[in-house]
Amino acid sequence: TLNFGIQTYTTQDLTIRYQQKEMASYHLRQSTALRMLLGILGTAAIAALAVFWLPTKSLLHLTISQSTATLTLYLLALQVLVVVLFGYFTGIYTVLSRAHAGVLWVNGQRLAMVLLTAFGVWRRWTFPALAACQLGTYAVGACLILLHVHRIAPGIFPRLRGWDRAAARAMLKPSGYFGLISWSTFLSYEIPVLVLQREIGPFVVVAFTVMRTIYSMVRQALNAVTQSLAPEITRLYGREDWPMLARLYGYSERLIYAMAPTANLCLLLISPVLLHLWLHQPGLYQVAPYVCMAAIAIVLAAKEQKFQFQYATNTHEHLARLMFGSYMALAVVSVPMVRWMGMLGFLLAWLAVELYQVTRMLQMNRRLFATSAPPETVSALGWTPGTGHATLRLLALSGVGLATTAWLLGHTWQAGSWTQAAAAILCAAGVGAAAYWLFNLLPILKLAVGKLRGRMAEFAA
To answer: What is the C-alpha to C-alpha distance for residues 354 and 452, in angstroms, rounded to an integer?
Structure first.
């Protein structure tokens, strides 16, 4: 909650102020946020000492000693707290419009931690030693980031000189809403498992989890595109560059809307092969749940694109209430739906909730541009992002694609692997061609090719 709260809100708030050249308020808010965060983390570190009074060994049925178990647990708790601080420091690169540098630091730290942990396991280090090494990699990484920031941008190096009580209070509420969004993720991913386990049993939980994992492969690939938009959205919002922000909205919407049905419908046809190759359990496959899950995955991809324009601009309070409230409703409704229709009942309820969220997020996006952008800018654009015309095309394409794919599955899901692979390739080609025409991807391709040629020219020079 802390990681998705204060750190996220502050990074985006400071980025906006830096783009608007409000350096006095930037330094005051940066110092206030850092002091507040250090206070919270210090308090949590002291509170975590309670683990030394917990019967950890007996609670977890461990074979190691009580002292070893509690020390390891405390070091892991400290690691969680240092991760929050590490994330706060990597956010400085977003302020500088160099978010890729922060990603490189995160990836480098993770690689170092994996290699060091693997070495420790090979050398048979104790659990406390392994936990201490992992904690140390985050602490050293945070120090290296600070040294690098001090070298490349000493003007925004983190300071602890200022404190503004009013600013601290103003940060807590929006930061708490970011925490609410993280709890929404828990509700949407963990509650279904608990409900299915309680109402039906472990076999259905395994089938559902495997199905969700298969579709999450495509979702993660599409999320890499949408999440990469966040720093640029924050930067453009801070500069109040509404024409470019609207252009980014339109291009990203069309790109995601073209990719989502193409990838997910292809995956829907090839899923029986994946189950056979991965788990040797083709019996886990059922046509209706997989078709429904494909529809959910398409809607989730559309939602992620809409989500970023509220999340990355710190206009997320209505978004947080929407997500938390609707997922709470899903948790309640899913119980009778599961009792009535089994796993398919839950999937249908989940699909209805995601469609409702996309509809509401379209309204939020429209309101963001209509209320924040100057009226003359919006009228000059000729349209307001969030009108939903592209979304209607997505629904039409997905509806026809799902119906056609479901019909194909009736003839191919028990066929040979090569037959299923050929059907998946033909589906991807057909849906991709339709999406290319429906969403007019030619300008996006020209822009991408132009940028690639420019980069190659720079590299050659």
So the answer is: 35
Give the residue among 236, 268, 235 at the shortest CA–CA distance from 423: 268
| pLDDT tens digit sequence for 393-417 | 999 999 999 999 988 888 887 778 8
Q: What gap in Å lies between CA 7 and CA 91, rounded to an integer?
A: 8
| Sole residue written with tokens 């925004």 | 156
Q: For residue 327, with 0-12 CB atoms within 10 Å meaning exposed, 13-18 middle and 19 or more buried, which class applies?
A: buried
Task: Say whether 214 sits in a helix, a strand or coil.
Answer: helix
Mean pLDDT along residues 439-451: 83
DSSP symbol at 61: T
Closest CA to 167 of 32, 19, 313, 9: 32
In this predicted structure, the answer to whether residue 224 has a pLDDT above a threshold of 90 is: no
* Helices of type H across 123-201: 127-152, 165-189, 191-199
Contacts with 240 (C-beta within 8 Å, 6 or more apart), sequence order: 20
Q: Position of tokens 């495997």? A: 210
Q: In angstroms, rounded to a whole number, what is the distance separating the alpha carbons of residues 365 and 384? A: 9
End-to-end CA distance of the chain: 46
Identify whether the C-beta of residue 157 lies closer than 8 Å to the C-beta of residue 150: yes
**pLDDT band, residue 125 (cuts 50/70/90):** very high
Residue 191 CB partners (closer than 8 Å, separation 6+): 327, 330, 331, 334
CA 280 vs CA 268, 275, 284, 289: distances in Å: 18, 6, 9, 19
Single out the residue of 64, 70, 86 nearest to residue 134, CA to CA.
86
Give residue for tokens 């461990």.
62
| Backbone torsions φ then ψ of 126, nearest 5 degrees | -75, 165
Sign of torsion over alpha carbons 101, 45, 185, 391: negative
Residues comprising the chain, all counted: 461
Instruction: For residues 216 and 231, give the distance between their C-alpha atoms in angstroms, rounded to a whole number.
Output: 23
Q: Are 365 and 252 in contact (CB under 8 A)?
A: no
In whole angstroms, give the CA distance from residue 190 to residue 214. Answer: 17
Instruction: Single out the residue of 390, 66, 395, 460 nearest to residue 261, CA to CA.
Output: 395
- The alpha carbon torsion through 343, 348, 354, 356 (nearest 10 deg) reads -150
Per-residue confidence band for 219, with pLDDT thresholds at 50, 70 and 90: confident
Q: Which residues of 263-292 are buried (b: 16+ CB within 10 A; e: fewer)?
A: bbbbbbbbbbbbbeeeeeeeebbeeebbbb
Contact 341, 299 (CB under 8 A): no
